[in-house]
Design a protein that fits this description.
The complex is a heterodimer of chains A (123) and B (204). Chain A is mainly alpha-helical. Chain A has a domain of 54 residues. Chain A is built from three helices and no strands. Chain A is flat and about 70 Å long. Chain B has 204 residues and is α/β, with parallel strands linked by helices. Chain B has six helices and five strands, in the order H-H-H-E-H-E-H-E-H-E-E. In chain B, the strands form two sheets. Chain B has a three-stranded parallel sheet. Chain B has a two-stranded antiparallel ribbon with strand order 4-5. In chain B, helix 2 packs antiparallel against helix 6 and helix 3 packs across helix 6. In chain B, 33% of the residues are buried. Classes of the chains: A mainly alpha (123), B alpha/beta (204). Chains A and B meet through loops of A and helix 4 of B.
Chain lengths: 123, 204
């Protein structure tokens, strides 16, 4: 086994692992043995800015916000894919242009739907 | 068991280093005090300057300002503590990791300073939490904060692993909970934590 070229690497790896883990383990052991835990309600409080937390963290968001998510997605995805498409436009074949057209049309369909629904007009 | 100082130097010259577990432990503790990342008033500007390149608190191992009290063990009360802010400061102190140390920086933090007569200013944070080092000054220069930090390091170095003066985290009896004052009608209630501060007797 010692003849394999990776043996020294394995030894070094174990050494490096021990070098990192041993202090952590020793510190944990020291804490367990000598440092008594003194938890209390104040120390275990969730929030850490000094103020008391109020209410529940499980709040509900209005489902009407899905429209923002959809419109953001349309413009964001469009921008992300259109930019490389525009940069490589001159070198592209017909198939690539058709594929891109289908993709853009799919997104525009979503935009048209949102437009028809009246989402784009500022209330 | 302390090693004789002369013998230690003599052995050091020969390339033999001797130490005790206590010295090693305290060396590690004093060289990795992590302050909490919060400032209260103008002293905080001096505190920030202390951590920057010119004064460089990193030389003492205290450059890691933690934004969470769970990861910090030193609180620098840098500035005026108003009565509105005092409960938050005490609550943060309670949430810090043991052993925790407090440096009250500047005239306001130690006594109320120039705002002592103000209706809304706490007359010293040591009314609610135990303060290890007080720094006078308005505001103290970064050198003063470094001096205070070195004094704190000496204090940590002098602590024994066992006995009466052992650090708080090794002492099961040490007080862990410091009550947070509430906002009363005219003042904070209670006006002081009796276990850490008593009304000084004025002799006229």
């Amino acid at each position: 086994m010692t003849s394999t070229p990776y043996f020294s690497l394995a030894v070094l790896f174990v050494g490096a692992l021990g070098f990192g883990l041993a202090p952590l383990g020793l510190a944990w052991l020291w804490g367990k043995l000598y440092s008594p835990a003194k938890p209390n309600a104040l120390k275990n409080a969730i929030y850490e800015c000094g103020l008391e937390s109020k209410g529940d963290a499980w709040v509900e968001f209005r489902s009407a916000y899905y429209l923002y998510a959809i419109i953001f997605l349309i413009f964001d995805v469009e921008a992300v894919f259109l930019l490389p498409f525009a940069v490589a436009f001159t070198g592209l074949g017909l198939a690539a242009c058709l594929a891109m057209l289908v993709f853009v049309l799919l997104l525009i369909e979503g935009l048209a739907w949102a437009w028809a629904k009246g989402v784009l007009t500022w209330a | 068991m302390a090693v004789d100082e002369g013998l230690k130097i003599e052995l050091g010259k020969q390339g033999v280093f001797v130490t005790t577990l206590q010295e090693l432990y305290n060396w590690g503790r004093r060289s990795s005090v992590w302050p909490m990342n919060f400032g209260l008033a103008c002293c905080a500007i001096e505190m920030i300057a202390t951590t920057m390149a010119r004064y460089d608190m990193a030389r003492f191992g205290a450059e890691v300002f933690r934004p969470s009290p769970r990861q910090a063990d030193m609180m620098i009360i840098s500035g005026t503590v108003t009565k509105k802010m005092a409960p938050q400061v005490v609550r943060l102190y309670n949430q810090m990791a043991e052993p925790r140390y407090v440096i009250a920086m500047g005239a306001c933090a130690i006594s109320g300073g120039p705002f002592k007569q103000g209706y809304n200013v706490l007359k010293g944070i040591d009314r609610y939490i135990p303060v290890d080092i007080h720094i006078p000054g308005c505001p103290p220069r970064p050198e003063a904060l470094l001096e205070a930090f070195m004094a704190l390091q000496k204090k940590i170095d002098a602590q024994h692993l066992t006995g009466e003066d052992r650090p708080r985290h090794l002492d099961a009896e040490a007080q862990g909970l410091f009550p947070v004052p509430g906002q009363g009608e005219h003042d904070l209630e209670p006006a002081a934590n009796k276990s850490v501060w008593t009304v000084p007797v004025v002799i006229r």
